[in-house]
Amino acid sequence: MKKLLVTGGAGFIGANFVHYWMNKYSADKVVVLDALTYAGNIANLDSVKDEANFTFVHGNICDQVLIEKLLVEHGIDTLVHFAAESHVDRSITGPDAFIETNIMGTYSLLKAAKKVWLDGAFNDGKVLEEHRFHHVSTDEVYGTLSPTDPAFTEDTAYAPNSPYSASKAASDHLVRAYHHTYGLNVTTSNCSNNYGPFHFPEKLIPLVITNILHDKALPIYGDGQQIRDWLYVEDHAYGIDLVLQNGRIGENYNIGGDNEWANIDIVKTISKLVEQEFVKNKDLGIRFPTAKAAMAQNTESLITYVKDRLGHDRRYAIDATKTNNELNYQPKESFETGIAKTVAWYLNNEEWWKSVMDGSYQNWIAEQYS
Ligand code: NAD
Ligand code: DAU
C-alpha cells in the first residue's frame, strides 16, 4: 500500500491522475496539496473528496515547512509532483509566477523530501529506504523540431524556448541533481500535449470546444501549421503509473501517443465533431441557440487567424520507444475515441466550464480562503 502526496492534484492532469489512481489502487492513501490558483478547481475532485483515504490540503509547494509536515504526518512514501504554472502564453506575459512555482516550488519539495526521507530529520536520523519522488515534466524542455526532424528521445539535448519550458527544464535539472548528489529516489516523465476532461479552457482544445458553443472566434496563432503530439490524459496517468511501479531510479521516461496534428487540423476536426453532436442531439440547439451548429451553419467559419505566439515552437513529437519497451507502455485510447469522449464531456459539463470561465469559481475561492 502506497501513501501518495500529489501536488497540483486539483488541476487538469493532477485531478485525472487522482481519479485514475484511487480507482485502481483503492487501498492507497492519497493526499492532494494544491494552492488552487486560477487553474486549480476543487470541484475536479468532487467524486473522491469524501473517501476515507483521501485528504485535500490547500497550500503552496513553496512552503517547505508545510511539505515536511505533510510527509511526516501522513507517512508519505511517494510524491507525485504535478503542481506548476502550465500555460505558455501566461509565461510570456508574466514569467515571475513560473519561476517561483516551477523552480522554487520544486526546489522546496526536493529539500523537504531530502530532510524527511534521507536525513530522517523527524525520525532519529533514520532513512526511509522505500521512497519515490516522481516529477511530471513536459516535452517542451527539448525545444522545437522542424517537420523532418526525428522525434524527441530521452537523450535529446534540452533547449527550452519559452519562460514556461525554461522553468520546467530548470526543475528537471534540480530533480536530477538531487538524485545524483544526495541519492534521492527520483524519476521524471516528459509527456506531450494532453487533452481530456477538466482541461482549463484557455488551452487550445477546450477553448475551441467552448468557443464553438458560444459562437466565438476560434483564434489560430500564425499560420496554424504548428504541430503538437496529443495524448488522452488518462493515458498520461497510466504512463506515470508504470514509471512509479517499474521505472528505474534516476531515469527520464518520455510519454506520448505518436499522434501529431497541425493545430488547424485539430480545430477543423473538433468543429466537425461538434456539428455532428448537434445533429444527433436536438437538445443542444436549445441549450446553445447562438452556436452556428444550432442553425446548421458551418462552424469552421469561426476560424480566425491571429498574431503568432512569441517564440512559438513549430513542432513537438515524442519518441516513447524507451517507455514502450522497458515498461510495456501503450496508450489505451485512440485519438478518435479520446477526442469524442472529450467533446462529450464538455457538452455534458457546461456548469464546470462556465464556472471556471466566468470568474464565479475564483470569487468563491477568494471567499473560502481569504
Ligand atoms: P494545470 O495548470 O491545469 O494545473 C496546475 C495545478 O497546480 C493547479 O491545480 C494549480 O492550482 C496548482 N498549483 C499551481 N501553483 C501551485 C503552487 N505554487 N503550489 C501548489 N499548487 C499549485 O496544469 P496541468 O496541465 O494539469 O499540468 C500538470 C503538470 O503536467 C505540470 O507540471 C505541467 O508542466 C505538466 N505537463 C502538462 C502537459 C499538458 O498538456 N497540460 C503536458 C506535459 C506535462
Ligand atoms: O507539450 C506539452 C505542453 O502542452 C505542456 O507542457 C503545457 O503545459 C501545455 O499547456 C501545452 O502547451 P502548448 O502551448 O502546446 O498548448 P496550448 O493548448 O496552449 O496550445 C496548443 C497549440 O495551439 C500551440 O501551438 C499554440 C496554439 N494555439 C493555442 C491557443 C490557446 C492557438 O493557435 N490558438 C489558441 O488560442
Write a compact overview of the structure shown.
This protein is α/β, with parallel strands linked by helices.
- Helix-strand sequence: EHEEHEHHEHEEHEEHEEHHEHHHH
Distance between the termini: 36 Å
CATH topology of the domain at 3-199 and 232-257 and 317-333: Rossmann fold
Assembly classification: single chain
Shape: globular
Look at the structure and name the CATH superfamily of the domain at 3-199 and 232-257 and 317-333: NAD(P)-binding Rossmann-like Domain
The parts where pLDDT drops under 50 for at least 5 residues are none
Strand content: 15-25%
**CATH domain class name of the domain at 3-199 and 232-257 and 317-333:** Alpha Beta
Describe it for me?
The structure is a single chain. This protein has 370 residues and is α/β, with parallel strands linked by helices. The protein contains 13 helices and twelve strands. The strands form three sheets. The protein has a seven-stranded parallel sheet, with helices on both faces. It has a three-stranded mixed sheet with strand order 7-9-11. It has a two-stranded parallel ribbon with strand order 8-12. Strand 1 (3-7), helix 1 and strand 2 form a beta-alpha-beta unit. It is globular. The structure holds nicotinamide-adenine-dinucleotide (NAD) and 2'deoxy-thymidine-5'-diphospho-alpha-D-glucose. 2'deoxy-thymidine-5'-diphospho-alpha-D-glucose is lined by residues 86-88, 138-140, 192-193, 203-204, 207, 219-221, 226, 228, 263, 309, 316.
